[in-house]
Design goal:
This protein has no helices and eleven strands. It is mainly β.
């Protein structure tokens, strides 16, 4: 099991940027497919972006494509989400999650595929 802690959320005006971090402990994340989900009040937890264990494969939700960038630094056991051109509809609690894949480049956008989750960080975008 890996423990995940998100940080970097906050209040930002529309058009602004934020960089979220997800720090892992307990196990090295180099064997994990990592992902960001988000959940707005009263809504389902939705997929945002995923990255394979090597960082060689990336996948984004259509709603964030071209604005958000997921990356990872396995030496620092950390995954990032750079969010640019933020919109009020990006307001949500953002969660990172991990899925053990060993050396596979497999990625998933299904929340039920992920076993380990962080507590979330709030992102609020004002208009």
């Amino acid at each position: 099991q890996v423990q995940l802690v998100e940080s970097g959320g906050g209040l930002v005006q529309a058009g602004g940027s934020l960089r979220l971090s997800c720090a892992a402990s307990g196990r090295t994340v180099s064997s994990y497919n990592m992902v960001w989900f988000r959940q707005a009040p009263g809504k389902e937890r939705d997929f945002v972006a995923a990255i394979s264990q090597s960082g060689g494969r990336l996948f984004y939700a259509d709603s964030v494509k071209g604005r958000f960038t997921i990356s990872r630094d396995n030496a620092k056991n950390t995954v990032y989400l750079q969010m640019n051109s933020l919109k009020p509809e990006d307001t949500a609690v953002y969660y990172c999650a991990a899925r053990l894949v060993y050396y596979s480049e497999s990625i998933s956008d299904l929340k039920n595929d992920y076993d380990d989750w962080g507590q979330g960080t709030q992102v609020t975008v004002s208009s």
